[in-house]
Design goal:
Layout: H1 3-30, H2 35-44, E1 48-51, E2 54-58, E3 64-68, E4 75-77, E5 91-94, E6 100-105, E7 108-114
Antiparallel strand pairs: 1-5, 2-3, 3-4, 5-6, 6-7
């Protein structure tokens, strides 16, 4: 192969990779939000309400405690600080754009958990 063909192939192979990783690096460096703000923004998107049918530790997901309902779409992973709060038969309610989780036990509000109360390192 001649030098032009090799240069073209190398450019077409590595330029998209450099652009892809360069974009994500740029986004990460220029994001002005703190680690806590990023954490809270990720938690706002989830919404759901269901009765807990099964509680287990999901080994492929770093042994995170996971709650499931009757429907396979009802899956919720629990923060380590809150693992002792949930029992089978409880109902949980989390509305979109809210940072609170309401736990109902025996048809009565038992506990309100708030993501803003979780300790998150700010220096990361």
């Amino acid at each position: 192969m001649n030098k032009k063909a090799v240069a073209f192939l190398l450019t077409m192979t590595f330029l998209p990779l450099i652009c892809f990783f360069g974009y994500w690096f740029f986004v990460a460096v220029t994001d002005k939000r703190s680690g806590k703000e990023i954490f809270l923004d990720m938690r706002k998107d989830y919404s759901g309400d269901f009765k807990i049918e099964k509680i287990y530790h999901d080994k492929p997901n770093h042994n995170t405690m996971t709650l499931t309902g009757k429907d396979k779409n009802h899956i919720y992973t629990v923060e380590r600080e809150w693992e002792k709060e949930f029992k089978i038969g409880d109902s949980i309610v989390k509305k979109k754009d809210s940072l609170r989780i309401f736990i109902y036990r025996n048809q009565r509000l038992d506990t309100i958990l708030d993501y803003r109360n979780i300790f998150i390192r700010e220096d990361v």
